[in-house]
Structures are given as structure tokens and as C-alpha cells.
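Subgroup meeting minutes
Present: P.N., E.W., G.H.
Scribe: E.W.

1. P.N. recapped why we're keeping a running log of single-chain structure predictions: easier to compare across weeks, and new members can see raw inputs and outputs side by side.
2. G.H. added today's entry (226 aa).
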Amino acid sequence: MRILLVEDDEALRSGLCEALEKGHFAVDALPAAEPAEHALQHVTYDLAIVDIGLPGIDGFELIRRVRRRGIEVPVLVLTARDSLEDRVVGLDQGADDYLVKPFEMPELLARMRALIRRSRASAGAHLSLGPLALDLGNRSATLDGAPLELTGREWGVLEQLMLAAPKLVTKKKLADSLSQWDKEITSNAIEIYVSRLRVKLAESRIAVRTLRGIGYRIEEEDAAPD
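Output recorded in log:
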């Protein structure tokens, strides 16, 4: 999943990026509202974490502009302001949740998961294809009812393929879904993640087909005749 983090405190921004990446999130971290507004218009994010006390345009105004443009990304406000008035203003502007600094990382991660589950619920939080099932909210997969162990990037590729099925997904879209501003995912890396998925799905009827020069499609193969 791809997260936008808007935080002007360099130390906190760096620490949050490290923690979120360990949690298998792709993170675009920006220090101000103006570049964040641009990013939200051109990139599809699963969640935005927004500080209020930003230089220039503050977080409240960023949220207001984003909602005015019809961008429905879940927004978690992260701020040192703890007054009731600030919480009410943030929620009224379009934020979905509010967490006051200082905070514990497990609580932040739990709130993130809850917001993502909530946003996915309207589009269907569960996907299935034959014996393969994905729970998008909990980021878990099963194959024939057994847990399917995936790395964060393997999950990201599988999620995009399942969301698009039976249509194909281009390599560029897969790369964009996993990349960060400063860490671009290459086509060769996508090929490696797809290859690893094929190994993990090898004993099932689920196949990842390559459309050479275009992208990939996931499908269920016909069962072998008796």
C-alpha cells in the first residue's frame, strides 16, 4: 500500500518513514502542503498522514483543498495540537481521524489499518479467485484456506493484479503502486516479484500470465479433467 506522509519535522518524518517501510508500506514523504497537494492529484494513495503545523499552507487548508477537488483518500491528522477546537476543525475539513503527538507507533499503525479497512469496505474488502482469497483491510491472503506468506512488495503486486482481474495490469502501474518519490521500482524488479508470486502459487490453479511488453494478468486455470 502506498502512503503519503506530510510532516515538516525532518527527524520525525525520517523516523516515521523507517517504521512504515518496515511495516511494508511504500511511503512518499513530503515536508510541505504545496507538493503534497500536487502529489495527491497525480498519485493514488491508500492513506494520507498530514501534520497540521506545516510551513506555508497548513494541514487544515491542504485537507480542505483535497476534499474540494473530490479526492477521497483517507486522511489521518497527526499533530501536537490537542484542543477540542482543533480536532473539530480537522474533522470538519474532511479528516477521517486525529492522533495527537506524542504517540505510540502501534496506535498509529492500528489507526491506519482501521482507516484503510473502512475505505476499502465500500469497494469490497475481500477479493477471491478460485482458491486464492485476499483480505484487503488486514493485508492477508490465503490459498486453499491456508495462509499465504508474502513480502510487502509481493503483496502489493498481487493486490493490484487481483483488483484488476480479469483485466491486465501494466508494468508501469505495478511499479507506480510500489514506488516512492526517491526509490523508483524498476521493470526488472517487477519481474522478480512476479516470479516469486508464481513460485508461491505453483501448486494451485492460479496463474500469472505475461503479456509480453505490456504487463500481467492473473487468472484461474481450468481444472484438469478427471
